């Protein structure tokens, strides 16, 4: 048993009432000598003898208290100091010493009381002010601590520690600039005070001066190179400087100095998560959770990493476990909601977000995500309230502000939306999505020039943003800058073929405004084939048909400027023309707008029904469409650039001028560049019934021929020359619009033309060049044969309705080793006892089918279990896997067991059906 000298000390006698003994002085001198030799145990024993001999002489208690403090026995030292203060309560040294011991034992309120007494005894005691300030700072009284440190500096201006402590207190008071001044002075007074350099780095970091913070941390590491926490802090600073590799190197060094430290490992995982290195983050956090399982913050972080990796099931398991470990941890419910949002289950996410908002009312992400969910559920008023709350919590976050602007645009509250977009431009001046949204808003506000300016800025920032091209084309159309609109749509189609219909509508407007009504109608018809719901194409076709009926198939007469202007005005939409087509609907995402490929990368093939895009130089831009100039009949035989080759379906109500009208809508004909002579030959009918008749049409005179004598009509030309590389522009049997138009019946003639056309393809032709189309027409049976062969192969391979045998055959090819073979009842019972026994293992389970789930996003079979409400749920990849299984069937299946959740089915993923032995 350990001998305790303090237990033998008799009660303290009052001064004058004790005994005096010569041996007391001998023991006291022996204790003092032992203390000088640093023999603290002997000194404590000698002072104990003194106390036993004369308890009234209190100096023995004070000296013995000093010895106990050196030996680390602080409680006994406090007891001796207290005994001394019963005799002499105004001893400054004893009171100050006991206060220091109280502070060391984290009894800061007791320490402050002793320091108050010491300062009362000696108001000039700088150490007492410094110590009292340190104790006040420990229990949260930062203003009082800063005042004490200031007084200590006044009394001892050369004390670097006092400047260090006041700088630290100012950091707690968020007075970072003043803190940097004090910490700099501390380093000047003591260049080896590494704590001051580290604290100054913290203040620089709070002010966003990350370069200065990194420099200070490097200096602190020079003074203390074995401090892993300093490496970790510098790693955080490097992450703020976007130096991910440097940050990870610092964390690697920190973990080298402190291997297996879970806090450092978790911090590195968080750094990887913020740097979007989700695989490394998940690996670090998995190791941390192996060392210290069940910490909610680390579970939530790993769930976030798994969600970003595209593993929503594992992420949901982590978030659910975090919520189970800490039911009042709001971010865990936010994580569960984000998993639901990633699956498109916005309605299911709202209850989780409600719970998260209740537990974490200052977490802006909760309100932003709930606003997105409400907007998806067409609850715009609730969405706007949540977006406003998110903006209030994080005024500099652009995502909720952009969402609120989109909500205001939907509600046609354009001025409110414009205010938010103006702030967005200030917050994110380099974000093209913001300028795109403001350009759309300016168009709705009918400020067309401002809309063009914003959309042009968008395209300068991101030239491949196809949506901006389409939107600017819409604004150009409203400004009647039709060639500019057409050029933008050409670039848009090069990047994304979905704008093909709108491109054809715009080209139809250009043709219609020039009086080329047949070409305009052809463009509108092809646009309707690509997009039957395109209102602009339907309205444009109707208006152009009316204009053609009023002014004739060739457009306005020569010099009819007012008629050209009227056609342009009508087709621009000012008189009931095609309404603006909305190309973009906001996905209500936090950031970013999807873009396309880089312009100039080559046009994409649009299909048999789409127009082929021109690859030549762009048309000169002008705000007014020039009037077309008719070509003279007798022109020199120089090459004239052809119009874009188009593909149209035959409509008996019109013939496209200069285009190819075909009986089969899927035949594409390309034309070579025409000379003036071959252009005239192209007007020659190919019909054998009319080939001997001359062309009775009179060409319109050019401007230079207005005053000249009228030239005689051109003589009839021979049929198409065999020098043309392309097939005849019109197949045999197709009617000519200049022949006997009064005798034509459109529907009957079209049917006859189609019949004679296909018959003519398979007849032997005398002319070798003219027989090419007929010769190659025989190959039309090839796609039909391929289609029939594919259908036969489809049935032969059993790709139709699957049977249970087919599904079992799939199960036979499953090669993953099975860890156990159990019945559904056994698996359920074992998992109830120990949820980890079969977790993440493949098992073979047999039982009766309770229910079959076949939904668009879920295909599963639920087997019977001892629980009346829940069973063993086996998830399959496709609907075919469960289509032949019915409730009540006896089946054997394999799958990977997931961790057992309370009040839920026991889930197995990657299900396969195995044959029952």
From TrEMBL:
UniProt repeat feature TPR, residue ranges: 58-91, 92-125, 126-159, 160-193, 194-227, 228-261, 501-534
Q: Which InterPro entries match?
A: Protein_unknown_function_OB, TPR-like_helical_dom_sf, TPR_rpt, Ycf3
Q: Where is the composition biased (Basic and acidic residues)?
A: 689-708
Q: In its keyword annotation, does this UniProt entry include Thylakoid?
A: no
Q: Region Disordered: what ranges? A: 572-593, 610-635, 659-751, 896-917
**Keywords linked to the UniProt accession:** Repeat, TPR repeat
Protein name as annotated = Uncharacterized protein
Instruction: Please tell me the species this chain comes from.
Output: Fimbriiglobus ruber
Q: Which residues cross the membrane?
A: none
